[in-house]
Amino acid sequence: MEGAPVIESRRRGRLRYVVAASIFAVAVGAIAAEFGFPFDQELMLDTTPPRGSKRVPMIEVRSNGMATIDLWCASGRGQVHLNGESIAIVPQSMTAPGCTQDRLERDAVFLSVLTQVTTWRREGDTVVLIGPQTLRYRPASN
């Protein structure tokens, strides 16, 4: 029976280690969720709409990479490829019923900038897309 207190002490030591490791894993998971890509959220371009409109570009990316993309006038679907801080946005089908020529031209310029994005990062709630031009998206407030 002399070894019983030593064995019990080792068990408590292991238990403390398991509890500490579990708490650490939960904390790391929470931090990763906070700073990871915000899947399944509507993200609005942080800008003001053009005169005569209330619409601004939006994007929503699902965890499988499928995306809904809204430009200044056109809308459609696409694919977003994420690998760490690297990102590639690939529109697949865009439609623009009822868009005026000047809005179509604005969409074409914006879509070109969006598809040239190569990296991303989080700044709090804001998602910053970096390419030839930096685009800042924030969660929709509706």
Point out poorly predicted stretches: 18-22, 24-33
Report the helical percentage.
25-40%
The appropriate CATH architecture of the largest domain is: Beta Barrel
Strand order across the largest sheet: 5-4-3-2-1-8-7-6
Q: Order of SSEs, N→C?
A: HEEEEEHEEE
Which secondary structure elements does this structure contain, and how are they paired or packed?
Elements: H1 4-35, E1 42-45, E2 58-61, E3 66-70, E4 75-83, E5 86-95, H2 101-115, E6 119-123, E7 126-130, E8 135-139
Antiparallel strand pairs: 1-2, 1-8, 2-3, 3-4, 4-5, 6-7, 7-8
Description:
The chain has helices spanning 4-35, 101-115, and strands at 42-45, 58-61, 66-70, 75-83, 86-95, 119-123, 126-130, 135-139. It has 142 residues and is an alpha+beta fold. The chain has two domains: 1-35; 37-139, Lipocalin, CATH 2.40.128.270. An eight-stranded antiparallel beta sheet has the order 5-4-3-2-1-8-7-6. A hairpin with a 4-residue loop joins strand 7 and strand 8 (135-139).
Could you write a compact summary of the structure shown?
With 142 residues, this protein is an alpha+beta fold. 33% of the residues lie in helices and 33% in strands. The protein folds into two domains: 1-35; 37-139, Beta Barrel (Lipocalin), CATH 2.40.128.270.
Which descriptors apply to this entry?
142 residues; 2 helices; alpha+beta; 8-stranded antiparallel β-sheet; elongated; 33% strand; Lipocalin; 2 domains
